[in-house]
TrEMBL record:
Lineage, opening ranks: Bacteria, Bacillati, Actinomycetota, Actinomycetes, Kitasatosporales
Residue intervals of the WYL domain: 796-858
Biased amino acid composition, Pro residues: 734-747
Coiled coil region boundaries: none
Name this protein carries in UniProt: Helicase C-terminal domain-containing protein
Region (Disordered): 452-472, 506-545, 730-749, 762-790
Organism annotation: Streptomyces plicatus
Keywords associated with the record: ATP-binding, Helicase, Hydrolase, Nucleotide-binding
Length: 866
């Protein structure tokens, strides 16, 4: 490199950032959003922030496997390293075409994220990243390499180093530094090193081969065997502590053929298609699942309509209540936890906040029920896609070994939305109608975020997962995503459906030339080794709302039209061959009990269900008319008799408040009640031939008489029959839980443009040369800001600003705003009046007005300032 090139080469990360264009700076801030919060004052502060440990760790966690391997190779290379040296560490002496083709992309990615800086002949890994990735005894490197010869011999006596030189066949030197250099030169010389190793006995070479790929440390006794002594004498093993030896990095690299990693992965593993179905079959299956999802959520909310389970003192559902919910929904407990959490994420259920706190539906649930079915599904799907609450961890243990309960705290996993979106994006990259092999999806995710996956071990969520509990969090999230997407109808038969594709904003699939379409789960698709193009997640709520609306539009035609009829059968059942109209479903849900669900729903009429309809204000005539109007078959005679029989007995007994009383025109019925042993707990006594008084309250009396087989009706103080309606319990208005973000949000284009402009202007203000002021050292030429605000008196400040107005020159000022924050700015004064200076501010790229009393001082720019 020539002298001019060396002087032009950046000497720090800040200088490397300074020569970037605005597009490159914006890409850095977009890929590492923590750097823009708050906006750095200049490029020096940006470089400092980019080198902090927390920021570097976050950036490393988001690298794919090959980019991370590239950074690990740079961490074990000389600093700085040339591109050729890096290529040798990645591809080895024999070379690897795939590595050679992929390495430029990896280096460009590391440069973009400011983890690597410098030209190709002087690549430097930022210091913090080197400290994190370089091998050490406390933190072994994934490369399996140990310390260099220089590092391993740092505490060795000069005499011992000279002995090693002699044993290795090298000439002695006058100092340890040159001796270590000579030994390192031997180990990196392929020809001489091969001759040295050939001279070793077989057992010695076997020891080196065992340590070659790591870990590089081994144990020896105070009197090593001859084959170990041969290695120690020649420096092929170096002592690091009493009884511990290490294989020097240079020796290991020679044995490996120059490779830093045993296996490099320059190409992401393909997502394999396990089965194929016709797209129409996938969409129809997904639509059926979507309808079932809506029915399940409605059934859950119906169960909790009058007030759901109690809220635990620590928050969440008890294990017993979750089991009851699972039985009511006829699903396993983990699936019940999913539906409960989904309704909570969508804002449909919440705690009521009462003294006896319980879960109940929110007012938003009533609004949701009035939406068209496709829009109701889209709201659930969007809530699932963006939620950080993770039902899969329910039943696991938290950091304090407490059970994680549904609707309880500590269920948020900030990586969940990213993993869900990425899994669906990988499915979108397969041919239309193709269901993926789950293991290939997990392998792809581990390649894309290896460090993040390896570090995110989460003890929560192991409940119910069996062997999967040992997987990293991202893998478990991916498995849950595949199963939850199928439950929700985002996928059908494992393949991404058209509404699911629209939900993540994926482009429509390109249909190839007409070919015979595979059908059935057994038909295998060819493995697709292409790299799945990334599908960016919607950046704003408006973009996600648009994608959700598109998904609803695609789903709506797939839903069958709601039916206005049922098929009544002689065995006191009614069959609904499809989804029912809202009014019909609501009335039928009161008049009959759901016996089975599926493609067709079966309702069963019982005395209790008919009495429930009568209690809700319906008369027998109303029920007969309703069934005749909505049945495609004649109303069976047994059902007519059942309704009439229950209606005839309904209301014969009347219960009111005395404590409570029972009156009946038929005194024989009252005699029967008094004689029944089951009435002993009600405290009944006869007040008159047709009246009994009770010590129980009216509600308990009603339930007790119904348990005895009677059908009493409640009456008011005026003696009128009360229509017992089940009042729906609602919480006060509640907002849906907000996702817990995984770090700062990605800035939008407007913020990026403003941030880059502010950083550029601040950097200009902090680096522009200025003339020496009274407090500067004279005789040193033009001064630079050095980050210190200029200090001048009020009179001098005013005079300098007024002179700049006349000459049109720019000034460098220090300014303290109303909040007390100090900054330095480049301004071109326009006018001065009333204690204010109006100037074009190069920092803000606009005309601003500044109070003179807030200007700490001014300085003129040097004559050679750009």
């Amino acid at each position: 490199m020539s002298t001019e090139e060396k002087s032009a080469a950046p000497r720090s990360l800040a200088e490397a950032l300074r020569v970037r264009d605005d597009v490159s700076l914006a890409a850095l801030l977009r890929s590492r959003p923590d750097l823009v919060t708050p906006v750095p004052t200049d490029l020096t502060q940006l470089a400092t922030r980019a080198g902090t440990r927390a920021s570097v760790v976050r950036a490393l966690e988001r690298l794919d496997r090959f980019a991370l391997q590239t950074a690990e190779a740079l961490a074990v290379a000389e600093d700085p390293a040339s591109y050729e040296e890096l290529l040798g560490l990645m591809a080895g002496d024999e070379g690897d075409p795939a590595v050679s083709a992929a390495l430029p992309r990896a280096v460009a990615l590391l440069r973009e994220q400011a983890l690597v800086w410098g030209a190709d002949d002087r690549l430097r890994l930022v210091r913090t990243a080197r400290e994190l990735l370089a091998p050490s005894a406390q933190h072994p490197s994934p490369t399996g390499l140990g310390p260099t010869v220089r590092e391993a011999t740092a505490g060795m006596s000069p005499g011992r180093i000279q002995e090693i030189l002699a044993a290795a066949g090298l000439s002695s030197t006058h100092d340890s530094v040159s001796a270590v250099t000579a030994l390192g030169g031997l180990f990196t010389d392929r020809t001489r090193m091969a001759a040295l190793l050939d001279a070793l006995p077989g057992p010695s070479r076997e020891v080196l081969e065992r340590l070659m790929w790591g870990p590089p440390y081994g144990q020896v006794t105070h009197d090593p065997a001859a084959h170990l002594r041969a290695l120690l004498d020649r420096g092929l093993l170096l002592p690091t502590a009493p009884g511990t030896v290490v294989l020097p990095r240079e020796v290991a690299l020679h044995l490996r053929g120059g490779r830093a990693h045993r296996t490099t992965e320059p190409v992401p593993p393909p997502v394999e298609a396990a089965a194929a179905h016709r797209p129409q079959v996938v969409d129809a299956t997904a639509a059926g699942q979507a309808l079932a999802a809506l029915a399940t959520v409605e059934e859950l909310l119906k169960e909790w309509d009058e007030g759901g389970p109690a809220v635990l003192r620590a928050g969440g559902l008890s294990v017993r209540d979750l089991k009851r919910t699972a039985v009511a929904l006829d699903v396993p407990e983990p699936v019940a936890a999913f539906w409960v959490e989904l309704a909570y994420a969508a804002g449909l259920i919440a705690s009521d906040g009462e003294a006896d706190e319980r879960y109940a539906a929110t007012p938003a649930y009533d609004e949701w029920r009035e939406l068209p079915p496709a829009e109701r599904w889209a709201r659930l799907a969007e809530s699932w896609l963006t939620a950080t609450r993770t039902p899969g961890v329910v039943g696991g243990r938290d950091a304090k070994d407490r059970t994680l309960s549904a609707l309880g705290p500590n269920l948020d996993r900030s990586a969940a939305p990213e993993v869900r979106h990425r899994v669906l994006a990988l499915l979108a990259g397969l041919p239309e109608g193709a269901a993926p092999d789950a293991e290939s999806v997990l392998a792809r995710l581990r390649w894309e975020r290896p460090l993040r996956g390896a570090q995110q071990r989460d003890q929560g969520g192991q409940g119910g997962q069996g062997a999967q509990g040992e997987e990293d969090l991202r893998s478990r999230l991916a498995r849950w995503t595949l199963s939850e997407a199928e439950l929700l109808g985002v996928t059908g038969r494992g393949a991404l459906a058209a509404p699911g594709r629209a939900l993540i904003g994926a482009p429509e699939p390109v249909h190839p030339a007409a070919e015979p379409e595979p059908e059935g789960p057994g038909d295998k698709l060819p493995v697709h080794h292409h790299r799945t193009p990334p599908v960016p997640a919607p950046a704003t709520p408006a973009e996600q709302a648009a994608a959700t609306a598109a998904a609803a539009r695609l789903l709506a035609p797939l839903f069958p039209e709601p039916l206005d009829h049922v098929l009544l059968q002689a065995d006191l059942t009614a069959v609904a061959p499809g989804p029912l109209e809202r009014e019909l479903a609501d009335v039928l849900g009161v008049l009959a009990d759901v016996e089975s669900k599926g493609g067709a729903t079966v309702y069963r009429f019982t005395p209790g269900s008919v009495r429930r309809a009568l209690d809700a204000g319906q008369s027998a005539a109303d029920l007969h008319a309703f069934l005749a109007r909505h049945s495609r078959t004649p109303v069976p005679q047994p059902l007519t008799y059942l309704i009439d029989d229950v209606a005839r007995r309904h209301g014969r007994l009347r219960v009111g408040a005395a404590s409570a009383y029972v009156r009946c025109d038929d005194d024989a019925t009252l005699d029967e009640i008094l004689a029944d042993k089951r009435a002993a707990g009600l405290g009944l006594r006869r007040l008159a031939p047709t009246v009994l008084a009770a010590q129980a309250d009216p509600a308990a009396l009603l339930e007790g008489l119904r348990a005895m087989g009677f059908a009493p009706a409640a009456e008011s103080a005026a003696g009128d029959v009360l229509i017992a309606r089940a009042d729906a319990h609602r919480t006060p208005p509640r907002a849906a839980p907000q996702p817990v973000p995984d770090g700062p949000p990605v800035p939008d284009d407007t913020l990026l443009t403003a941030a880059v402009r502010a950083i550029r202007a601040g950097d200009l203000a902090s680096t522009t040369p200025r003339k020496p002021g009274p407090g500067d050292d004279a005789g040193d030429g033009p001064a630079r800001s050095g980050g210190e605000l200029p200090r001048t008196g009020a009179a001098e400040t005013l005079a300098t600003v007024q002179a700049a107005v006349l000459t049109g020159e720019a000034l460098w000022i220090g300014y303290v705003n109303a909040e007390g924050a100090a900054s330095q700015r480049l301004i071109a004064p326009i006018r001065v009046e009333g204690g204010f200076v109006t100037a074009y501010d190069h920092t803000a790229d606009e005309v601003r007005t500044y109070p003179l009393h807030r200007i700490t001082g001014v300085a003129e720019l040097a004559d050679d300032a750009g």
